[in-house]
Amino acid sequence: MYDTIVIMYDTIVIGAGHAGCEAALAAARMGARTLLLTMNLDNVALMPCNPSSGGPAKGHVVREVDALGGEMGQNIDRTFIQIRMLNTGKGPAVQALRAQADKKLYSLAMKHTLEQQPNLDLKQVLVEELAYEKGALCVKSNIGQTFRAKTVVVTAGTSLAGKVIVGDTSYAAGRAGEFPAYGLSQSLRHMGFALGRLKTGTPPRIHARSIDFSKTIIQPGSETPLRFSFTAVDNSLPSPTPNPVYPQGQPTPWRPQLPCYLVYTNSKTHEIIRANLHRAPLFSGLIQGVGPRYCPSIEDKIVRFAEKPSHGLFLEPEGWQTNEVYVQGANTSLPEDVQLEMLRTIPALERVEMMRVGYAIEYDYVPPSQTSATLESKLVPGLFFAGQINGTSGYEEAAGQGLIAGINAALKVAGKPPLILRRDQAYIGVMIDDLVTQDLVEPYRLLTSRAEYRLLLRQDNADLRLTPIGYQLGLVSRQRYQQVEEKRRAIARELERLSLVSLGPRGRIASLLAERRLPPIERSLSALEFLRRPETSYHTLVELGLGEHNLDAEAREQTEIEVNYQGYIERQRAEVERVRRLEERPIPPDFPYQQISGFRAEARQRLEHFRPATLGQASRIYGVTPADVAILMVHLERARNAPA
Q1: Could you say which of 79, 147, 191, 486 is the most buried, measured as most Cβ atoms within 10 Å of its Cβ?
Q2: Any idea which fold 478-570 has?
Q3: CA–CA separation, 283 and 300 (whole Å)
């Protein structure tokens, strides 16, 4: 029998992973009295898979979370052991930061932030039941604690009916060493939610002392300062001391960093895997859930890419003061003996010792056709979902959803309109729109190719896109907002100034170009046009006395990008305006699709299933054609013009 003591909150967040931490902090910072519940306070913001943050599209999301006033960017900046900019040889739309975190320090720093946050309580509780009672959501624990709230955000990760699988062995667990959440999963079914089943996995961890680093290729961190957050963080954590077991390679002068190390599989590795496929749960039928296509297990890679003679594996240290090394690229659920045998075929790992065995995990999720673009469920008012419960994979995707769910939970409590980010505003908007308009066939992973306006959604301009929204919500300080707006004005002023500076084929500039062996100017042109030349950068303008010395580095970067990609950017902005009317045209939630003649059967079924909130969402549902959208638009017009 449950305890009769009931504590009332505005918002309760279930789960303290990356989604839960962002949701709880956002709600509390917006003034909602918030409770964050977790199974284990020692595992707050745990990185159970790769201890890293960022990469293509994912790094964009981290910067968007930061621009909106979230915490992930600042937390990784406090605790990373290595940071790099990826895709530097490509255009700015796909360049992205990626950092390796100190796994324990990341968790500790986030827990410290949560503990210091006003309006936020943090408790270790195993949630056994979630119910909607008397106009409020009720959360009950396995030992009789009861909490009630106006809104609840569920960020359960892989805990819902979780099952760990290694070889022919399986056991109930949310992650290795943690309880599964069977009661919460059952509660969602009782509420009427249909649940699906997905699978993910993790590689073995190996002991650094058993690695022959002389046979690896060192991957150093950036030699120049980089950070995720648009504001510098105060690192109050102890100064890191590099572990002497790791070869350092070329030191980075601006901050201590640990390198990663690259090795390759070979034909012998592949032979061992192939010889043991009958023992692999992925192929034996023991695993029922669908895994991520873009992050396959090593055994899946060997089968799917049989023609490849080798696969790269990155050996990534898990922290400053631990000898655990993550084998990136070797996700597996093969039996332990096979895992060890295959690793020892790699020259650098001939004497390797495993500290943790790799495993697969299956878990329940809520197919997001049951969720709106605000991340509030369609079935139960005030109940929000974020993270892997929505069928996504990745810490960054979880953090982005958690932030939006927390914001909208607080807005709902305050009786204010929700926040929905458009596809042209943020990668977070692309992700959520994809989730609520598509049926998942595998865990969703955000990719730059999913964003049709990716030149507008660069990682470098996330603050210009989203900080004003964060400020309006109360998540960004006035000082930070004013700094962003001054940056915006500085860029506009510089673009205007450069357009008015005229250069000719003769004179001082012509002589300076000749001295630097740069192509001459053959006709009069503006400094703006000159900057557009492929061999010219803003640094070149400064060297020639044409640049603004007082313009900060970020404004210089934005100026250069705006000039070099002006035509492409203008075309994407024009396309955004063209489809804006479609995107913003609302569809009533109870629109009678079954009563509309002219729809094809598939379109009617898909529209009824997803119940899109706008015509834009309807147009992106698989099976809905432009003709179906046109019919829908006609009937919406008729409904609007009908007499009351």
Answers
A1: 79
A2: Arc Repressor Mutant, subunit A (1.10.10)
A3: 9
- DSSP category for residue 251: P
Domain positions in the chain: 6-158+185-200+363-443, 205-233+244-360, 478-570, 585-641
Give the distance from CA 442 to its chain's centroid. 16
DSSP-based three-state secondary structure for 83: strand
Q: Please tell me the least confidently modeled range out of 15-19, 276-280, 347-351.
A: 276-280
Q: Taking a C-beta distance cutoff of 8 angstroms, is the pair 153, 11 a contact?
A: yes
Q: Bridge-partner residues for 85, per DSSP?
A: 97
Structure token digits, residue 449: 């190719």
For the stretch 270-310, pLDDT in tens is 999 999 999 988 776 776 666 666 678 899 899 989 999 99
With the CA atoms of 491, 494, 496 and 499 taken in that order, what torsion angle do they form, in degrees rounded to the nearest 10?
A: -130
- Most distant CA pair in the chain, distance: 91
Q: What is the pLDDT of residues 446-472, one digit of tens each?
A: 999 999 999 999 999 999 999 999 999
Fold held by 6-158+185-200+363-443: FAD/NAD(P)-binding domain (3.50.50)
Matching residue, tokens 């023991």:
286
Alpha helices in 163-266 (DSSP H): 182-190
- DSSP count for the chain of H helices, then E strands: 21, 22
Residue for token digits 């960054």?
Answer: 396
pLDDT above 90 (res 28): yes
Contact 153, 12 (CB under 8 A): yes
272-311: b (≥16 Cβ within 10 Å) or e: bbeebeebbbbeeebbebbbbeebbbbbbbbbeeeeeeeb
Sheet containing 169-172: order of strands? 169-172, 163-166, 359-365, 196-202
